[in-house]
Write a structure and sequence with these properties.
Layout lengths: L1 H18 L1 H37 L2 H4 L12 H4 L4 H8 L4 E5 L6 H12 L2 E6 L5 H18 L3 E6 L6 H5 L2 H6 L2 E7 L3 H4 L2 H5 L1 E5 L5 H13 L10 E3 L1 H10 L4 H13 L12 E3 L1 H8 L11 H15 L3 H13 L4 H16 L6 H15 L4 H14 L5 H15 L17 H4 L36 H15 L10
Parallel strand pairs: 1-4, 1-5, 2-3, 3-4, 6-7
């Protein structure tokens, strides 16, 4: 019955298709167009779902990246109003840039924001995983885009110091011609690790660790943000917990946010359905931190900066600062032999004869550290650092040898006076070597009125501190005798 009833309709449809064939073509076109729309809609649906899944998998620091410059915290010494990078942005003339500083201070984030602010295409490479082939392909793509649309590409290269010379050189032509705006990021000093040619074409901006206030602001934003952070849950921190987290993060926003996320997600209250209100305590934050990582590169800037701070603190007679920098270097894995060598040098350079016991003590500390090793030798190092910091200071011997060497290298060489020349060989007497020499121990007070140099010079000038006060008094009398300006004093 159904087939019989439908037969006339089918015949009518067939007849209409035969009479109006264009309707069939148009109908097929509409069907295909509808199919494409459905496929496109499905594709958009899948893409949105995939993007949402990827976002859910992102750690809190990635989700909380600032989306505009107004949300960016820190680095106001070059990004604040009126500062260099601010002026470059305002003029829309960035040029090539190198960001240098510790992790977690916003180098990658700021590079993305610069691309947004200047309406450039953003492309990113990692010097750890990319080579010349990838660099050249991206530069060619950037050149094509500039030629066709007039739009510049901001190329961000993370860990740019990992590129070798050839890889860095490959960037130079397109950087010079303005095909790309290069933003390189590095945790190592670019003046030591990046090609001079690239550094000379770039503005170098040094990132500093974020302040405690900045870190607190970033944490508070993550707690309050309902879209990307924990704002849709009832999460809070005790004041002392917030203070501790901001301090222990050492100016690293990534470390602070990672710790916050661990503390929240590992809480039993947060894992209930729905999550219960959670107020994080100091104990919970401390547990999430565990042992904090000490940022210290034993072959890079931190090594030299910390060593400089240690020496300058001891020279400045601050035992507390000296102990802190010693602890910082030990926790960072510094070589104990390097530390002891520096202390022995300092004992002569900065204490000198103001305390003649400083050098033997520093040498004894070096030998003790060699014998006992860590961790016990930290006690010996602490003793040496505090003694040297508290000792009276004199650089008189340091200045004396520097001035004498400068005279040797820059002035006329002073010949050895004839009476001081060696006479312990055959023929020396015929040359007159040693004639007129006065044996000091035969003179009263063991000081003979005799010229030992041939020219008038005073290199050693004792200071009025420590034992050098006594040396200065004695030396004044000795010099008077040497020059024949006073009678020999047996008490000299």
């Amino acid at each position: 019955m159904k087939a019989t009833a439908g037969a006339p309709a089918c015949e009518a449809t067939a007849a209409r298709k035969k009479k109006f064939p264009h309707e069939t073509t148009l109908s097929c076109y509409h069907d295909r167009f509808d199919d494409k729309l459905r496929i496109h809609a499905m594709s958009d649906l899948f893409a949105a779902s995939e993007a949402k899944n990827r976002e859910r998998a992102q750690p809190l620091p990635a989700r909380m990246r600032p989306r505009c410059l107004a949300e960016f915290c820190g680095q106001q010494h070059f990004l604040g109003e009126g500062k260099l990078l601010w002026r470059m942005l305002k003029a829309r003339r960035l040029g090539s840039i190198l960001f240098y500083g510790p992790p977690g201070t916003g180098k990658t984030t700021l590079a993305r924001l610069l691309a947004t602010e200047t309406q450039c295409r953003f492309r990113q490479l990692s010097a750890v995983t990319s080579g010349v082939k990838e660099v050249r392909a991206l530069l060619e793509e950037a050149g094509d885009e500039l030629a066709t649309s007039g739009k510049q590409t901001l190329l961000f290269i993370d860990e740019i110091h990992r590129f070798n010379k050839a890889q860095q050189d490959a960037l130079l032509p397109d950087v010079e011609n303005g095909v790309v705006i290069l933003v390189g990021a590095t945790t190592s000093n670019p003046f030591f690790t990046v090609n001079d040619a690239l550094v000379s074409r770039s503005h170098v901006f040094q990132f500093e660790p974020l302040s405690v206030v900045d870190v607190k602001e970033i944490i508070a934003r993550a707690v309050a943000d309902a879209e990307r952070g924990f704002g849709r849950y009832e999460v809070g921190l005790d004041d002392n917990a917030l203070d501790f987290l901001a301090e222990v993060s050492d100016g690293d926003a990534r470390r602070a946010l990672n710790t916050l996320e661990i503390a929240v997600l590992s809480s039993d209250l947060f894992r209930t359905e729905p999550p219960s209100p959670l107020q994080l305590t100091l104990e919970q934050i401390a547990d999430a931190v565990q042992r904090k990582a000490i940022r210290y590169d034993a072959a890079g800037d931190e090594h030299y900066d910390a060593a400089s701070a240690l020496i300058k603190s001891i020279r400045g007679s601050d035992p507390d600062a000296g102990i802190y920098w010693l602890a910082r270097m030990l926790e960072g894995g510094e070589d104990v032999r390097f530390l002891t060598r520096r202390l022995v040098i300092l004992a002569s350079e900065d204490v000198g004869n103001a305390d003649p016991n400083a050098l033997p003590l520093a040498v004894a500390a070096m030998q003790a550290c060699e014998l006992i090793g860590l961790p016990e030798c930290q006690l010996t190092l602490a003793q040496a650092v505090t003694y040297l910091a508290c000792a009276p200071k004199s650089n008189a011997a340091t200045v004396a040898i520097a001035e004498a060497r400068r005279d040797v290298t820059e002035a006329r060489i002073v010949p050895v006076p004839r009476q001081l020349r060696d006479r312990h060989y055959a023929g020396a007497a015929q040359l007159g070597h040693g004639d007129g020499y006065q044996y000091a121990h035969d003179a009263e007070g063991a000081v003979a009125a005799q010229d030992y140099l041939g020219v008038t010079r005073e290199y050693y000038r004792p200071v009025e501190r420590g034992f050098e006060q006594e040396l200065a008094r004695r030396l004044g009398k000795i010099r008077a005798i040497l020059r024949g300006e006073a009678e020999t004093n047996s008490n000299a």
